[in-house]
Amino acid sequence: MSAQYSFTEIEKKWQAAWENSKLYSVQIDPSKPKYYALDMFPYPSGSGLHVGHPLGYIASDIVSRYKRLNGFNVLHPMGYDAFGLPAEQYAIQTGQHPSVTTEQNIKRFREQLNIMGFSYDWDRQVKTCDPNYYQFTQWIFSLFFNHWYNKSAQKAEPLSTLEAHFSDNGSINHNAHGGKITGFSAQDWQGFSPVQKHNILNQFRLAFIDETTVNWCEAMGTVLANEEVINGLSERGGYPVIRKKMKQWSLRITAYADRLIEGLERIQWSDAIKEIQKNWIGRSQGAEIEFVVRGTLKTLKVFTTRPDTIFGATFMVVAPELENLKEYCSDAQWPAVQEYANKAKNRSEIDRMADTTKTGVFTGLEAINPFTGEPIPIWVSDYVLANYGTGVIMAVPAHDDRDFAFASTFNLSIVPVIKPANTELELPLTESFSAKEGICFNSGFLDGLSVKEAIQAAIKKIEKAGWGQAKVNYKLREAGFGRQRYWGEPFPVTYDSEGIPQLENQLPVELPQVESYKPSGNGESPLSAVTEWVNTPQGTRETDTMPGWAGSSWYFLRYTDPNNTEVFASTEALKYWQQVDLYVGGSEHATGHLLYSRFWTKFLFDLGYISWDEPFQRLVNQGMIMGEDGQKMSKRWGNVVNPDDVCAQYGADTLRMYEMFLGPLTDSKPWNTNGIEGVSRFFGKFWRLFYEGENWAVSNEKASNEELKILHKTIKKVTEDIESMSFNTSVSAFMVATNELGTLKCRKQEILEPILILLAPFEPILILLAPFAPHIAEELWHQLGNKESIHIANWPKYNATLLVENSFNYPISINGKTRAQIEFELTATEAEIKQTVLNHELVIKWMEGKPLKKFILVKGRIVNVVV
Hints:
alpha+beta
C-alpha cells in the first residue's frame, strides 16, 4: 500500500491483472440482460493513434463499464478494418506484402489501446483481411448473387423463384426490381441459351455485372467512389481522376431505397445523419414526360418533380454523358457538342454541382413542349447529370436557380408561371422565384390552381394524353463493388467459356502471392498476372477484388461469434446479442459504411439469418479533437499529439478524464496541453481523500447528512450524465464532490467507496469513478479491502430523500449591500428569522445604532434590513 499516487505502476499492474483474469471476456448468459456497445473499428495505419482517435473509444468504454456495474452482460469488442489502399501503396513502393505491414500496424494499435485501459473482450478480435473472416464476406456476396428483390413482397427472394416465374409465365408481371428487358414468353425463356438467360437474370440479381460510368484513377489503378474524389483528384494521394465506362460488379442497393428511408424513423440517430442519408437516397415524386424532338420521331424523356411548371419550360438540357448524344444534335453542331462533352464528363459530379459558372453548347435541335406546342431549344451542359432521372431536364428558368443562371448566360427565354398567393411578381425577374407554394398563371388550364393542385392536374393530363406517367425517382445509385487492386477480398466467382459467372463452392478463395502489387494500368488488377491462380478447372477467376467497405458492412455480426468456422455466427449468439445497442464513430461515414451496413442488415433479415433489420439502434457521432493550432491533427501539419506520450507523463486515467472534460462528446474542440494539468491535479487531490500524509486515513465513522448529500447528489448527476453521454459535466461533478469532501476532511468509507464505483464511487464514490478512471478506482477499491474487481461491483443508487434541502443560507443585506450569511431551517418562521438576524453581531455592526425602518424577507432567497 503506497501513500503516493504512482499512476505508471498502478496502471501497468491492473492492466496485466485484467488481462490475466480475462475480466472483460464475455459469454452468452440468458440470466442477464445484454448490452452491445461498439466502436467503429479502425483501419490500422502505420502512424498509429493520435489523441483524437480515442475520444469515441473512451466514451463507449465508460458506457460499457457503467452497464456492467448495472448488471448487464456487456459485449464490447474491438477489431480492425484491415484491407485498405495505404498498405497496398506501401507494398508497391517496398515489395513487402500488405499483410506484413498490416500485422505490424495491428500490433502497434493493440499496444496503444491496452495502455489506455479499455475494457475490450480481445478474445473476439476480428480482422477483415483474415481468410477465416473474409470467407463469410465472400459467402454473403454469394447470397446477393443468388437473390433478387420482389417488389410485391418487398423483400429479397432466391433467384430460383424468379427463374420459375419466367419458365411458367415469361416476363409478364415479374415485379422484380432491376433493369430493363425486352418482353418474352414462357416458351421463349425455355428456348433461350445459357448466355441469353444470364443476360436477363443479370438485370435482376442483387449482385450483378454492370457497365457503368466510373471514377477511374490511372495512378492508383482502380475505381473510386464519388466520395473518394475531390476536385477531380483522388482523396488519397491527389491523383487525377477521369470518368470512363467499365464493366464491374455492383450491388443493387436501390432495391432497398424506401426501406432505408423508413428505417431511419425507428433508430436513435442524430437528425443531421438521418437527413444526410435521406438526401443521399433522394426520393422524389413527380412525373416522367416525353418531349418529341422537332422534325423527328425521336423523343427525350425527362423526370420532374414539378410538372405544374411545364408551361414555363423554355429550353431543355441534356447531360454530356447521355447515351446516343449524337442523335440529338444537328450535324453542324456535333463537333462542338462532342468537344464540350468530352471535357465535361471527366469532371466529378461534386465539382459540376458546386460550380456556379454555367457552360454549355446548343445541339442545333429543338423539342416540342407538349403543353404549349411551342418549340424549345435543346442544349448540352455539365450541370445536368446522366445518373439522376433520365439525364435530361426541362428547364424552367423562372423558378430554378441553376436554370435561371444558364438562361441568363445564354440569353434564353424566361417565362414565370407561378406567383405568390397574395402579391404580384416583380417583372422582369432579376432572380428565380422559388415556387414551392403559390398560384399558377401563364399556364393555360392550370391558371388559378395552387402548386399542389396543379401538380396533380398536370400529371392527370400527362397520363391521359399519353405523354408520360407519374413516377418516383431516386438519386441513390447502385453500389459499385469492384476494385482493380490486390489488397481486398477476392470474388468467389469464375467465368465459363461463354463468360457466364458462376460461384465457387470452396470458401475462402484466398489471395495468392504476386510478384508485383502495381496496378496493371489496363483496368485489371495485379491478380490478372497470376495465371496459375486465374485459370482453374472450373473456369477463369474474377480478378477484381471487393471494395474496402465490404468487410465493414457486417463485422458487427461476426463479433457475436468470432471463432465459428462453420457459419458467420450461430443462431444462438445472434438471438442473444442481436443488434448493436450503442454505436460510436465519425459522421464522415454517413453515406458510406453507415448506409451499406444498413443495406446488408436488411438483406440478411430478408433471408432469415437475423431477426432485426437495423444494425445500430443508437448512433453517437463523436466530434473531432483538433490540434492546438485549431487544424485537424495530421502529420502534414505537424500537430499530432501521441497518446502514449500523454499516458507516460500523466497516466491513462488522466488522458481519459481530460478528453471527456474537453467539452460535449459530439463537439469538435482543440487539444490543450495546459488543460490536462488541471485533471492531473484533480487525481492528486482525489488520492488525498484516502491518505493523510503517508498514512491511510479512511475510517468507518458514520457519515454526516452533509457528506451523504454530497455523495448522493454526485450519484444522481453522474448516473444521469452517463445515460445522456454528457461526460464533460460528470467530470465537473467529480471535481466539485472532491473539493467539497476535501473541505469537510471526509475520509469515511461509507462515502468514498461508492464514489470509486462512480469513478468507479470511496466505496460509492470509487464505483462512480470506475468507468472514467478504471485504474485508480481499482487500486483504491482493493486498498479498501475488497477482493473482487470494482468493475463487477454494483452501481450505487441515489437516495432522493437525502437530496431534499432542509435549510437555506440567506444572504443578509443592510440597505441593499450584503453584509452576512445566516443559515436557517426551511421551517423557520419570519419572526424567528427576524429575531436571529437583528441579534447577529455583523448585522448590529452595520446597522450602526440606527433604528429599523423595514425588515424584508423573501422566503428562500434573501433578507434585507432597511435602516
